[in-house]
Each structure stands twice: as C-alpha cells, then as structure tokens.
Specification:
The complex is a heterodimer of chains A (320) and B (280). In chain A, strands 6-7-8-3-9-10-12-11 form an eight-stranded mixed sheet, with helices on both faces. In chain A, strands 2-1-4-5 form a four-stranded antiparallel sheet, covered by helices on one side. Chain A is 32% helix and 24% strand. Chain A is an alpha/beta fold. Chain A contains eleven helices and twelve strands. In chain A, helix 3 crosses helix 4. In chain A, strand 4 and strand 5 form a beta hairpin. Chain B is mainly α and 280 residues long. Chain B has one domain: Orthogonal Bundle (MetI-like fold), CATH 1.10.3720.10. Chain B has 13 helices and no strands. In chain B, helix 4 packs parallel to helix 7. The chains are: A alpha/beta (320), B mainly alpha (280). At the A-B interface, helix 2, helix 3 and helix 6 of A face helix 9 of B.
C-alpha cells in the first residue's frame, strides 16, 4: 500500500556553541492511512524533535539538515512556508504532551477551537463556534456549549487534553501526531484518552503517529513500533513481533523493565547506566556502553538497520 | 477576561488603600473634566471689573488678571491634561508594544537592531529633544502629544520584549504555530494578551509622566498656547502676580501634584495587584 507519509533519512541537528547535537540522525519510517505507528524511547532520544520536524517547527538552533518528508508524494521540506502553514493543523496536526500548558490561558476554549476552523476552513466565527461545540461533544466533553465560554484554568487536565484533541481534529487531518498524549494524566484518564484517539482514528481513517515511552500504551493501541535510541531507530517491527520476538538488546532491556501482572516476583531489571549526553556519544553503536552484549565490533562502527524478517528491522551487530 | 477576574481585581484594589485613593483621584479628575462645561462657565469669559479677585463663593479659586474664573479654566485644563496624557501614552504604548513584540519574538538580528535603537533613543535627554523638535514645529497640543509619545516608548518596548522572551518558549505558542497560524497572529493574538500586565502598569505611570511633561512645556511657553487653558500655562501666567494673587499659581500647581500622585498610586497599586509575591 502506498504510504501516506514517508520519512527518508531525516536528520535534525542542533548547532550549539559547544558542538553539533544530532537529535535525529538519519531515521526513516513510513505511515499508512489508518494505522498507528508508535515511536518509543527514553527522554531525550529524539522522539519529540522527530515530531516537530514533521511539522517543520523545530525550535532554533535546531535545523533539519537532510532527508525527505514525503506527504502524499510531496516533499514537505521543499514547500514554501505559506504552503506548509496550510498543512499544519489542517492535514497534519499534533496533540501536545502537557495539557496544562498547551492551551492559551487568556483565550476562551471556544475561540481556540474556532480559530483553526476560521483559519483553514474559512468558516465565519458563529459557524466555527457551532462546529466547535460539536467537536467538544465528539471528544466526550459534557455540556459543550457551556465549555466554549470557559477559560483553560476552569477545566481539569483530562478535559483540557480532550479540548486539545478536539482542536487537533477540527479540520479532519490525515495525520495526527500525538506526542505523549497521556503522560501528564491519571491512569484512568489515560485509558479514556487512548480509547478516544483510537476511535477517532478509525472513524476518520487517520494515520496516527503515537510518541510515547509507555510500552503498555504501545501494546494496547499501536500497529507497528519503532524504538528510538540516541537519535536512531534501533528496531522497527509490528507490535506482535516486537513483544514476542523483540531482538535489539535495548528493546529487550525496555521489555524487561516493565512490570507484568502474574509475572515472577522480585525486582525489575533496569537498563544499567544513562542515555549518553548528546555531545559525548560513544563511537560506533551509541548503545554499546549500556549493552550487556557489546563486543569489539560495536566500538568500531555503528551497525545499519538490517531486516530480520519482513517488516522487522534491527540495528545490531549481534543480530546480523 | 472573565467578569470574575475583573471583580477579583476590583476587590483587591479596594483592599489596597493607597491604590484605591489613586483610583478615586483619577476617577474624580475624569468626572470633573467631563463635567467642565456644566460645572464652570466659559473659560475665556473676560470681566475686567472682576480681575484678581481672591477665592470666594462666586469664584471658588478666584479670578486672574483678565477677570477669568480660575476654577472654570482649571476644569477645562484638566481636559487638556487627560487628553495629552492618554494620547501620548497611547502612542508610546503602541510603538513600544509593536517593537518590543517583534524584538522578543524573533530574537537574533531583529532583536539586536531594535534594542540598539532603544539604547540610542535612551541616550538623548528626551526633554531637550522635545524642546528642539518644538522649536522647529509650531507648538500645538497635537504636536506635543505626538512628540511625548515618540520619545517615551522605550521602557514599554523593553518590558514587552522581556515578557515575549519567556512567553515564546511556552507550549501554547508552539501549539498556536502547529495549527497553522501566521507569525503576526501568534504574536498579537496569542502571546500579547499574556504580556499586557506590565504594559498596563507602565502605561498608568506613563500618563503621570506625560501630564508632567506637558505642564513643563506649557510652563516654558512652548506647550499648549493661550488662550487655551492648561495647568502649566496657568502656572506661568500667575508668576508676575504671585506676591499679591497666590491663587493663580497655587491651584493649578496643586492640581498637577494631585493628578500625578493619583496616577502613580494607581499604577503602583496595579503592579502590586498583579505581582503574585505581593498577595497575602
């Protein structure tokens, strides 16, 4: 099937005074209509920068220095800024991590939703507000007409995240990027939000790029998974493959550190060490300092992504 | 802003005695200026038979050397002062907000250029700059407002820039861009309303400064031109007869003092209200 979004060799670097930080270093993946791809990794591995790169909103001094982002066969990196703006929030939109800060504190909820409809769909303010109420109802917010007149501080975290989802879905985007949409919420609310995202994805045939560090969420809602480490994709597979035949030592480490119901009692197995600081990455494979299976070759060169089985890619010298 | 929010501000304002005093002064100046033509008569009515009368029930603040009623002229002068204060501060705030917002939002070389321009403007002793400009233009009330506005926007620009520097890093700014807003809309609709508090405070204090500057210019004879009354030119008109008719200078002087005091108290009160560290 023709991918809706095809990212090829994307590189986003931050040019700082102390050196070049390779936040995203040559990653490729694709996204098909109606599927959910989960991008998983620890804090600081480049997940959010990848998301912002797709919208071309990388904050300075960050810059996309190479690769292609093909959306419907158009390379977004070559589009003029005006055309790019017509895509943002309209055909590709984003749900932010922090519902407490992603809404503007001085604007009413209604105006914040209506704005995007006025912007992209050319609706009049009154029509846009009516439509906003429908959207709020759609994301499960009770009493939507009333909520339109509220300010963000009058709503709870879960309600705010629903508002943010309503904003991002207002124009029926083809791609929704959800950057840790449930990290800041209670567990019960998390499940509701994930259900909501899944339902809306199916109803609108969206492609969902789900960024998370929660493997539980991945197992529940993703179709395919890409594991990121230090700006690289180290393993990519379908959810079933990953949980059953996860192969990269980092993936195995992540899986071993998740508590399981009915699993054996005792301490969880953490991955030793820390993510290396971005300016002091080890030579060769960036994971080798923490890898229980590292050997000489890992220090010499970084391995390529190799296909283990169809659709299952791994970046490790031990596996190829 | 919700009505609850405004109610809340008002209740804090009442609790802060000095700020409330300032608020009352400012309010009464507005009322007096607004009712000038009802409370007083014709500010230009000359009655030489009644010249230099001391304060009495008929002439509350006495009469001047042409027999004009000082109280009436002061009411009309209050209109001039308010007009000058608000228009000048309005001009200064518009320029300051615009340049400060650009500077803080874009940063980089745009910021450098605008901030160096601010530094240059701050180098000029603005009162002498005003004197020099008035010497070329004719001293009309509109010229004065424009010149005061054009020479007092730098503080606002710096305040707004500082606010923008911190606000632009906030998530909702990124979110506003992520839904496809233009820069202009992000700056003026999304960020600016979050940065208005210090602007409001500085504008309130700025009105006091503008009224003082206007009085000073009028006192020097290059501000508001007679026969239009202004507190500054009434002050200087009373100079020759100060020994015999104190009321000609004393009342306009007091009016300037009280008005400026009122705006300063109100401005500082508003600052305290918005400063979270000052709340119980």
């Amino acid at each position: 099937m023709q991918p809706l979004l095809d990212i090829r060799n994307l590189k986003t670097y931050f040019h700082t005074d102390k050196g070049v930080i390779k936040a995203v270093d040559d990653i490729s993946f694709s996204l098909v209509k109606g599927e959910t791809l989960a991008l998983v990794g620890e804090s600081g591995c480049g997940k959010s920068v990848t998301a912002l790169s797709l919208l071309r909103l990388v904050p300075p001094p960050g810059k996309i220095v190479g690769g292609e982002i093909l959306f419907d066969n158009t390379n977004l990196l070559l589009l003029p800024e005006n055309d790019m703006r017509r895509i943002r929030g309209n055909r590709m939109s984003m749900v932010f991590q922090e519902p407490m800060t992603a809404l503007n504190p001085v604007l009413r909820i209604g105006d914040q939703i209506a704005e995007i409809l006025q912007l992209h769909k050319g609706l009049e303010r009154n029509q846009a507000l009516e439509r906003s109420a429908e959207l709020l109802a759609e994301v499960g917010i009770p009493d939507p007409e009333q909520r339109l007149r509220d300010y963000p501080h009058q709503l709870s975290g879960g309600l705010r995240q629903r508002v943010i989802i309503a904003i991002s879905l207002a124009c029926r985007p083809e791609i929704l990027i959800a950057d840790e949409p449930t990290t800041a919420l209670d567990v019960t609310i998390q499940a509701q939000i994930m259900d909501l995202l899944g339902r809306l994805r199916d109803e609108n045939e969206m492609a969902l790029l789900l960024i998370t560090h929660d493997l539980g969420v991945v197992a529940e809602s993703a179709d395919r998974v890409a594991i990121m480490y230090a700006g690289l994709i180290v393993e990519q597979a379908t959810v079933v493959d990953l949980f059953e035949h996860g192969s990269h030592p980092y993936t195995l480490g992540l899986l071993a550190s998740v508590p399981r119901l009915g699993g054996k009692k005792g301490r969880l197995t953490p991955i030793s060490g820390q993510v290396p600081p971005p300016l002091a990455r080890p030579s060769g494979c960036p994971f080798r300092n923490r890898c229980p299976e590292a050997f000489d070759r890992c220090a010499e060169a970084c391995p390529e992504l190799k296909e283990l089985s169809p659709g299952h890619l791994v970046r490790c010298w031990r596996r190829t | 802003m919700s009505t609850d929010y405004l109610k809340n501000i008002f209740s804090v304002l009442i609790r802060n005695r000095l700020a409330f005093a300032g608020f009352l002064i400012v309010l009464s100046m507005f009322i007096l200026a607004g009712l000038a033509s009802i409370l007083g008569g014709d500010p230009g009515a000359i009655d030489v038979a009644q010249r230099l009368q001391p304060p009495s029930l008929q002439h509350l603040f006495g009469t001047d050397d042409l027999g004009r009623d000082v109280f009436t002229r002061m009411l009309f002068a209050a209109r001039i002062s308010l007009l000058v204060g608000f228009v000048a501060v309005g001009i200064a705030t518009l320029i300051g907000v615009f340049l400060g917002a650009l500077s803080g939002y874009y940063g980089g070389w745009i910021d450098s250029i605008i901030m160096r321009f601010v530094d240059i403007m701050l180098c000029f002793p603005s009162f002498f700059l005003i004197l020099a400009v008035i010497a070329f233009l004719e001293p009309s009330i509109w010229n004065i407002m424009i010149i005061i506005g054009l020479t007092s926007w730098m503080g606002v620009a710096r305040l707004v820039r500082a606010e923008f520097l911190s606000l632009r890093e906030r998530d909702f700014v990124l979110a506003a861009r992520a839904v496809g807003n233009r820069d202009g809309r992000v700056i003026f609709r999304h960020i600016l309303p979050n940065a208005m508090t210090p602007v409001l405070v500085s504008a309130t204090l700025g009105v006091a400064g503008a009224i003082l500057t206007e009085s000073a210019l009028s006192f020097l004879g290059i501000g508001v031109q007679p026969p239009t009354p202004s507190w500054g030119n009434m002050l200087i008109a009373g100079k020759q007869t100060l020994g015999t008719a104190w009321w000609l200078s004393a009342f306009p002087g007091l009016a300037i003092l009280i008005t400026v005091l009122g705006y300063n108290l109100l401005g500082e009160g508003v600052r305290d209200i918005f400063d979270p560290r000052m709340q119980d």
